[in-house]
Amino acid sequence: YGAFLLDDDWDVIFTIVETLHRELSVPVTCKIRVFKDRERTLELAKGLERAGCQLLTVHGRTKEQRGHNVGMADWTIIRDIKRVLSIPVVANGNLQKFEDVTRCFEETGVDAVMSADAMLYNPTFYSNTPYRPLDVALEYLDIFEKHPVVLAWAKGHLHKMLIDELALFPEYREKLGLHARTLEQVRQLVK
Predict the structure, then answer these.
(1) What's the rounded Cα separation, in Å, for the pair 76 and 91?
(2) Which of 55, 175, 178 lies closest to 191 in space, CA to CA?
(3) What 8-state DSSP symbol labels residue 86?
(4) Is the pTM higher than 0.85?
(5) What pLDDT sits at residue 86?
(6) Which has the closest alpha carbon to 85: 129, 167, 29?
(7) What is the reported pLDDT for 1?
(8) pLDDT given at position 25
(9) Are 152 and 158 in contact (CB under 8 A)?
């Protein structure tokens, strides 16, 4: 959790970014969470830009806003950061449905948006098409078959994609989590 670096001496963070910017031939990007103190957040963002950050992603929540304390992301601070920086800014936080993407662009003026959790639950999030979880899960398994990773990771993703279906049919949750040991067994459960 890199956000905990923000509690430390910012000179260390800026030195890391400066070194990366100087030594690498690719752009240096950073991602931050915000502070309760708006001015402190703006100073951090400006310091990162001065250090050589070439794109900044801003999660509009504090590092304390995790788990049961998650709360709403503050898009106004993301807007304020965008206004004071000359580099591209990406907004992160509160993107739960496709309409939120448009609203975030309008309210913040950012160059792009990023979504994490929504994409885990609905991989078609950015397509603005009706979500059919079982069809998407089967397509995901086809991709998994072509590009295998650890089966437990795929099953974890499927638990998120199929969260509503598994709530309706809890016996499948256990079968998927504990008993399906091969890709074909997982595919049969999804079908």
Answers:
(1) 11
(2) 175
(3) S
(4) no
(5) 98
(6) 29
(7) 58
(8) 97
(9) no
Buried b (16+ CB within 10 A) or exposed e, 175-187: bbeeebeeeeebb
**Chain center to CA of 179:** 30
CA-wise closest residue to 121 among 156, 69, 86: 156
pLDDT at position 69 over 80: no
The residue among 146 and 96 whose pLDDT is bigger is 146
The pair of structure tokens assigned to 104 is 């975030």
pLDDT tens readout for residues 120-177:
888 888 888 888 999 999 999 999 999 988 989 989 999 999 999 999 988 888 888 8
Q: Which is nearest to 113 in space by CA: 97, 93, 143?
A: 93
What's the rounded Cα separation, in Å, for the pair 138 and 109? Answer: 37
Which own/partner pairs from 94-99 qualify as long-range (CB within 8 Å, at least 24 positions apart)? 94/60, 95/125, 98/125, 98/126, 98/128
Q: Does residue 94 come out as left (phi exceeding 0), alpha (psi in the -120 to 50 range) or beta?
A: left
The count of residues in the chain is: 191
Q: Give the other-Cβ count within 10 Å of 90's Cβ.
A: 19
